TrEMBL record:
It is found in: Membrane; Vacuole membrane. InterPro entries: ATPase_P-typ_cation-transptr_C, ATPase_P-typ_cation-transptr_N, ATPase_P-typ_cyto_dom_N, ATPase_P-typ_P_site, ATPase_P-typ_TM_dom_sf, ATPase_P-typ_transduc_dom_A_sf, ATPase_P-type_domA, HAD-like_sf. Its main location: membrane. It comes from Microthyrium microscopicum. It comes from the Eukaryota. The chain crosses the membrane at residues 236-256, 268-288, 439-460, 486-513, 950-972, 1029-1047, 1067-1088, 1108-1133, 1139-1158. PANTHER family: CALCIUM-TRANSPORTING ATPASE, CATION TRANSPORTING ATPASE. Pfam families: Cation_ATPase, Cation_ATPase_C, Cation_ATPase_N, E1-E2_ATPase, Hydrolase_3. This is Calcium-transporting ATPase. Keywords: ATP-binding, Calcium, Calcium transport, Ion transport, Magnesium, Membrane, Metal-binding, Nucleotide-binding, Translocase, Transmembrane, Transmembrane helix, Transport, Vacuole. It is a multi-pass membrane protein.
Length: 1309
């Protein structure tokens, strides 16, 4: 390694052999971790920002990689002050362990610790990246000794309590690179201390006691009483309570002073009843909130837990992220989100994205701890050496192992998360409902104020009257009571009008849906995605594992120039009577030896071991076994291959045909010189090994047509020798037709080849821009010798064709986006119904070459994109969204993250997906099945429908209750409404809480897929809903007002009473009770009507499957019966006659046929919005029209290279606003917590700013703090800040450097 300052050069390290000898040969074990260091096939590499930067991966001065030691670039600038270049400074221990504050000082004292270091010592390593502390901890060897572990075999799998003690001074005796002397004589306890029943609790007990586990403390949930107290903070409820207290005080005074001859002393009952009703309303709301928090807490815990790979007792194990402890040796792979802090032990080309912790957007290369310690010990410049693994970072490239040093609250990411404490923000639909609720509340408040003014004026005109209209004397007490009654009625109207049940409805719908979606294999990470998914218009789906089963088997193979072919006849399609030119066994006549008429040989797969040349088998087996990332493991008691399904299929093929018995030993026999990880752009992967004759062989495996295009030679006769001859154009044509034939039969094709080199790196080869010591792969990827092409069968999932047909019926288009061969993709797309007649199939390179205008023409008919890269998927998503589509996209690889973020809804794969893909997604498909996406679509529509059902019901009740109360109160001589305050509160409880519970729990109905998705700008209340609301309001008002003004003339027994009898308190109370009962029964039946928000006639669809709805209706009926029969003075009611009950139920039931007739009326007759728009257009001033047009027009997307001076000025203003937003976030974070974001009503301008997208900019002032919230779920359990809306912009705002375009939330009302 050359010193950047011009110092002496250190000789190049020798090639390092991957050594797996530390692993036991016992059966049913997984391999030693070094065998997993090959970068995983199919896990893509994150795109590196396209700008050179000093001390980064892109820097031309980046250091070299030798053997398995990766010399890495500098950490972030904020940490460079910790780099020490003078040996005297390094070896000085002055102030290294000095605590920065009292809190850190407490970490240096761990009582009864059996370890040689404390949390305080380990906290000096990260997040400071303090290399002096690392040096004095004696590197990897010293840390392993102090933590009582082994860097090769990890922790004992049965460790409980540790015997013996160590001190920090014992580390001075440690010699880095040698055996851990201080641990000699210190043993781990056996399992005798605990029984199997409680062994789980005592496992790693000392580590858990001293260092803690990998969990973050959850934010304490609010208690029921705290939630109730918050609900009581509503100003209108407070006003109502004050009025109730005044009424109670006056009532008590009147009751005490009332004479026995003046009637029962129950004047206090009204005040008590109002207070009790308020308590019930608040209590029910608080109970719902409490249950909602518990449900989401469970979902979050499930969302955050995951499994990671650690080495324990020399075996690779998968453990929960919560069960990782300091001292563990963890395996890191491309795409992992690191759950804890640590030091790299060894690895291949490890690079990490640490932007979530340091703010650096460039990738940081890592070097092994031993290399760094030696460089420090020799006084070399270590600015470009970084062994530190930071929790929350993402592994962008490479594989390796690291020693865990801090977990949970003691990790660097945990400390950051403990400083952030915030509430979950509301979803876009909740914001829309809040705005609508504010309008309704304002109208209700205006009605209440108007009623108060009218009644108060009437009250003032009667103040001088000594008696009431009925002749009762009026004293000061009665006048005060009359005033309080007026106030209570007015305030109660406001309470009824305020639709506090709207937010409750969407909350309940989301809670119910997310819980059910989890059962349907959809783990929801962001609530707003549930709403958005309901209106998705396009689903861009992967093929492998989503449309197919991802259960792969090699069923066909062709060797050499095509003269030797093999296949499973029971699985492969056959073409009887056809010439065998497509590589399909059984399609031509053969003799006993399998030779066909054209001289080629056709063999069953199980005969390959007997017929192929032994040396050729050895080469082919090495190409499969060594150039692979899969490994052996145990699942459900069986020994299986674990890894990419393509890899495991090839290993199974090698086991069946080439006597692969022990994968670990096969790999141990080879010396790996360099790994070439799979790259989604190249579509190939490779490995370079050193052969016995001191030469080097590079094995290549990948997309068959790409490998074939780089081949110039071919093994001539695989049956007899490995001799290679030139590959002619005719041979290429033959092999190309075989590949196309396999692909047309829905087989995935993988090509294999090799190339030999006399030395490594090859003489004259260009150097890799990332690693000058490595050759540039593209420069040496030619002159390959062709070995074989195999056809891998991946059957289509059951139910996929039906799911695609369901999407089509629902107006949702499915597009297949796959990296497979175009013919394979075409065949699968036809089988599952995605590719229709006239549909377009296009390859990724062709898609990239289209101009925007051409792409716009192609999109309506595009069905399949084959050989696509993640960038193609992102481009497609952006183009579709630009056309106004609501796009859902699936992804499993690391490089799929930008597309997942760019889409309106991102689905990651729960089985095959990387952690980066899961973090970037909104919903995780736990079964990787396309059918589960359709279920998510159904639940999304159900959520939106639930809110609209409730809205339809609420507005109807609101209008009727407010108008009925207003009209009857104004027309009454006593200034009293037919519905008193307590009755209105019961109605409020029905329509706000019970209706929300009933209508928000409807399961998805089959008719959901019979309508097209709603546009983004569709209003919450559709014309069909307005039609129902208006129709039901008219009917209910006619019934109640006719009864109030004329009912005494035709309803028995009132029609037979005299005027004096009708005015008696008893009969007035009976009549008002009847009207109250009729009103409530109409609401009960209208709740059934509101189950339909379209013109469908069947209101009982799914009714009998919704036990919750039936239970709520039963509670409403029972509650009404109890109130009328036994409510008495509290509710100001009296028991009614049986025929009055019949009248109430019949009038309520009539709402059902009324609703049926209303739905028969075409919507066009109620489209009042069109005349209103025409009127507004004709009467709006021109300047206002221009202003509104500018507000509606989205800003154009301008590429950086196309900007003129005017565009640059506009861009500067945009950047200025972005910096302003970043500074605002910084202000929020300064107090070590985020300010609580309320779910209150905001101006639409603020909503657009906060909910335009979920993605942040890489140019943000605080990208680390913003990204921190996105990675918490993978670090450990606990607080899960999700502030994707912070520092966000629309895609049309543009950001040339952003790799994750934003997504748009649901539009405003």
């Amino acid at each position: 390694m050359a010193d950047s300052s011009g110092g002496p050069k250190r000789p190049r390290a020798p090639t390092i052999t991957v050594d797996t000898s530390a692993v036991s040969d016992a059966p049913h074990t997984e391999p030693e971790p070094s065998s997993a260091f090959i970068s995983p096939l199919g896990r893509d590499t994150l795109a590196i920002p396209g700008r050179a930067r000093g001390d980064s991966v892109n820097s031309n001065t980046s250091q070299s990689t030798t053997g398995s030691h990766t010399v890495v670039n500098s950490p972030s600038p904020s940490h460079r002050n910790s780099d020490v270049t003078h040996i005297a400074d390094i070896k000085s221990e002055d102030d290294v362990w000095k605590p920065e504050d009292e809190k850190e000082g407490a970490l240096f004292y761990d009582e009864n610790s059996p370890f040689g270091v404390t949390r305080g010592h380990l906290s000096k390593l990260l997040p400071r990246k303090d290399k002096r502390a690392f040096y004095h901890l004696r590197g990897i060897t010293g840390l392993a000794s102090a933590l009582r572990t082994n860097p090769k075999t990890g922790l004992p799998s049965d460790e409980e309590y540790l015997k013996g003690e160590m001190s920090f001074d014992d580390l001075k005796n440690v010699n880095p690179g040698e055996e851990n002397e201080p641990t000699k004589g210190l043993t781990h306890s056996s399992t005798e201390r605990s029984s199997p029943k409680d062994k789980k609790d005592t496992l790693y007990a000392d580590r858990k006691r001293v260092f803690g586990d990998n969990r973050l403390p959850t934010r304490k949930a609010k208690s029921f009483f705290a939630l109730a107290w918050e609900a009581l903070q509503d100003k209108i409820l407070i006003l109502l309570c004050i009025a109730a207290v005044i009424s109670l005080a006056l009532g008590i005074y009147q009751s005490v002073t009332k004479k026995a001859s003046e009637g029962a002393r129950v004047d206090w009952v009204e005040g008590v009843a109002i207070m009790v009703a308020v308590i019930i309303v608040v209590g029910v709301g608080a109970l719902n909130d409490w249950q909602k928090e518990r449900q989401f807490k469970k979902l979050n815990a499930q969302k955050e837990d995951r499994f990671v790979k650690v080495i324990r007792s020399g075996k690779t194990q998968k453990v929960s992220v919560y069960e990782v402890f300091p001292g563990d040796v963890m395996i890191l792979e491309q795409g992992d989100v690191l759950p804890c802090d640590g030091i790299l032990i060894e690895g291949h080309n490890v690079s990490c994205d640490e932007s979530s912790a340091t703010g650096e957007s460039d990738l940081m290369k890592k070097s092994p701890g031993d290399v760094v310690w030696k460089a420090l010990d020799q006084g070399q410049d270590t600015k470009k050496l970084d062994p530190f693994i930071i929790s929350g970072a993402r592994v962008s490239e490479g594989v390796g192992t690291f020693l865990v040093t801090a977990v949970g609250v003691n990790s660097s990411h945990g400390k950051l998360m403990m400083a952030l404490n915030e509430d979950t923000d509301a979803t876009p639909l909740q914001y829309k409902l809040n705005r609508l609720a504010s309008y309704i509340a304002k109208l209700g408040s205006a009605a209440g104020l108007l009623l108060f003014i009218v009644l108060f004026i009437e009250y003032l005109t009667r103040l001088k009257n000594p008696t009431d209209p009925d002749g009762t004397a009026r004293d000061a007490k009665s006048k005060a009571q009359d005033f309080v009654r007026i106030l209570i009625v007015a305030v109660t109207i406001v309470v009824v009008a305020v639709p506090e049940g709207l937010p409750l409805a969407v909350t309940l719908a989301l809670a119910f849906a997310t819980k059910r979606m989890t059962k349907d294999n959809n783990l929801v990470r962001h609530l707003q995605s549930c709403e958005t998914m309901g209106n998705a218009t396009v689903i861009c789906s992967d093929k492998t594992g989503t449309l197919t089963q991802n259960v792969m088997t090699v069923v066909a193979a062709t060797f050499g120039r095509g003269s030797v072919r093999a296949g499973d006849k029971d699985k492969m399609p056959t073409k009887q009577g056809a010439n065998f030119t497509d590589g399909t066994p059984g399609s031509a006549s053969t003799d006993d030896s399998g030779t066909t008429a054209d001289g080629s040989v056709e063999l069953p797969i199980y005969d390959l071991h007997e017929r192929l040349d032994r040396d050729f088998q050895h080469i082919l087996k090495d190409s499969i076994v060594i150039n692979s990332t899969a490994f052996e493991g145990e699942e459900e008691g069986k020994q299986v291959f674990i890894g990419s399904k393509t890899e495991t299929a090839l290993l199974d093929f090698a086991a069946r045909c080439f006597e692969l018995t022990n994968l670990q030993k096969e790999r141990e026999a080879s010396t790996i010189t360099q790994l070439i990880p799979f790259d989604s752009r190249r579509k190939v992967m490779g490995v370079v090994i050193k052969s016995a004759d001191a030469k080097y062989r590079m094995f290549i495996k990948g997309a068959s047509e790409i490998v074939l295009s780089k081949c110039t030679k071919v093994v001539d006769d695989p049956l007899n020798s490995t001799h290679a001859t030139d590959l002619s154009e005719e041979d290429k044509s033959t092999l190309g037709s075989i590949i196309s034939s396999y692909a047309s039969m829905s087989l995935r094709t993988i090509g294999m080849g090799y190339r030999d080199f006399a030395q490594w790196p090859p003489q004259g080869a260009k150097h890799s821009p990332d690693n000058p010591s490595d050759p540039d792969f593209d420069d040496i990827f030619h002159d390959i010798t062709w070995l074989s092409v195999v056809g891998i069968q991946d059957p289509m999932r059951k139910g996929v064709a039906e799911a695609v047909a369901t999407c089509e019926r629902a107006g949702v288009r499915a597009i297949m986006v796959t990296g497979d061969n175009v013919e394979t993709a075409r065949a699968i797309a036809k089988d599952c119904g995605i590719l229709k007649e006239g549909g377009i199939v296009m390859e990724g390179p062709k898609l990239r070459s289209l101009s925007p205008a051409q792409l716009q023409e192609v999109l309506p008919k595009l069905c399949v994109v084959a050989r696509s890269s993640p960038e193609d998927k992102k481009t497609l998503v952006q183009a579709l969204r630009g056309e106004g589509h609501v796009v859902a996209v699936t992804g499993d690889g690391t490089n799929d993250a930008p597309a997942l973020k760019a889409a309106d809804v991102g689905f990651s794969m729960g089985i095959a997906g990387t952690e980066v893909a899961k973090e970037a997604s909104d919903i995780i498909l736990m079964d990787d099945n396309f059918s589960s996406i359709v279920k998510a679509l159904a639940w999304g529509r159900t959520i939106n429908d639930a809110v609209k059902k409730f809205l339809q019901f609420q507005i109807t009740v609101n209008i009727v209750a407010v108008l009925l109360t207003f009209i009857t109160a104004v027309s009454s001589d006593e200034e009293e409404s037919v519905l008193n305050a307590v009755q209105l509160l019961w109605v409020n409880l029905i329509m706000d809480t019970f209706a929300a519970l009933a209508l928000a729990t409807d399961p998805p109905a089959g008719s959901l897929f019979d309508r097209r998705p709603e546009p983004r700008d569709a209003p919450l209340i559709t014309p069909t809903m307005w039609k129902t609301i208006i129709g039901q309001t008219i009917y209910q008002l006619i019934v109640t007002l006719v009864m109030f003004f004329a009912g005494k003339k035709f309803i028995p027994p009132f029609n037979n009473m005299s005027a004096a009898e009708l005015k008696s308190d008893k009969n007035t109370l009976l009549f008002n009770t009847l009207i109250f009962n009729v009103f409530v029964w109409m609401q009960i039946f209208d709740a059934l009507n509101c189950r339909r928000i379209d013109n469908s006639k069947n209101i009982f669809e799914g009714f009998w499957r919704n036990n919750f709805f039936m239970g709520i209706i039963a509670i409403m009926i029972g509650g009404q019966a109890i109130i009328v029969s036994f409510g008495g003075a509290a509710f100001v009611v009296t028991p009614i006659y049986g025929y009055h009950w019949a009248i109430s139920i019949v009038l309520g039931f009539i709402t059902l046929p009324i609703g049926f007739l209303i739905r028969c009326i075409p919507d066009r007759y109620v489209r009042i919005d069109l005349p209103v728009k025409r009127f507004m257009a004709a009467n709006t001033p021109a300047w206002l029209q221009r202003y509104l047009a500018r507000r509606r027009k989205p800003p154009p997307v301008i590429e950086a290279g196309d900007m003129d001076d005017d565009h640059i000025g506009k861009e500067w203003h945009r950047v200025y606003n972005q910096v302003h937003d970043d500074l605002a976030l910084y202000k929020q974070l300064r107090g070590r917590r985020l300010h609580v974001i309320k779910m209150g009503i905001r101006h639409p301008r603020e909503l657009l700013k906060s909910h335009r997208s979920r993605s942040g900019s890489r140019n943000s002032v605080l990208p680390g703090l913003v990204a921190a919230g996105a990675t918490l779920g993978s670090v450990g359990g606990g607080i899960t800040p999700d502030r994707r809306s912070i520092n966000s912009r629309r895609p049309e705002d543009g950001d040339a450097s952003s790799t994750a375009p934003s997504r748009r939330g649901t539009d405003e009302v």
